[in-house]
Design a protein that fits this description.
The chain is α+β, with helices and mostly antiparallel strands. 27% of the residues lie in helices and 37% in strands. The protein is built from 3 helices and 8 strands. It has helices at 18-28, 54-67, 81-90; strands spanning 2-7, 13-16, 32-38, 44-50, 93-99, 102-103, 109-115, 121-128. The strands form 2 sheets. It has a 5-stranded antiparallel beta sheet with strand order 1-8-3-5-6, covered by helices on one side. It has a 3-stranded antiparallel beta sheet with strand order 2-7-4, with helices on both faces. Strand 5 and strand 6 (102-103) form a beta hairpin.
Length: 129
């Protein structure tokens, strides 16, 4: 397993990590297998989505904000219930095939670390096998 650090500058952000994960896959020497990208945080997540148009990430954030507003009738006392819910909706891991030593991504796909309770310094765990 390899860990990478991701620093976020705002409360909610999507940070593309595709190239960083690709470098870990390449360094692993695995030619055929899988890569698992996992976020060990309860107010952050990871997703696979379009990386060609930054408006897609902005639209995803806006949709999540509409579905799960920051202020709501939440019981969690820390004031970040929306971040926990958004994290649960996005998910904490992505599994991709490794083919010929590279992640098998679609033409417009990229990996994004999703921050919902920043700014923070976070970890992303990458396992290639």
């Amino acid at each position: 397993m390899t860990e990478i650090d991701v620093k976020t500058a705002s409360r909610i952000a999507m940070v593309e990590i595709t190239e960083r994960v690709a470098a870990v896959v390449a360094a692993s020497g695995v030619r055929e297998g899988i890569v698992v990208v996992h976020v060990p945080h309860t107010t952050a997540g990871v997703t696979l989505n379009e990386n060609a148009d930054p408006d897609v990430a902005a639209d995803l954030i806006a949709a999540l904000d509409r579905m799960v507003p920051r202020r709501g009738p939440y019981r969690h006392a820390e004031g970040n219930s929306d971040a926990h819910i958004k994290s649960a909706l996005i998910g904490h891991s992505v599994t991709l095939p490794v083919v010929e030593g590279r992640m098998a991504l679609g033409a417009w796909q990229g990996l994004f670390f999703c921050e919902f309770d920043g700014p923070r310094s976070r970890r992303v765990r990458i396992t290639v096998q």
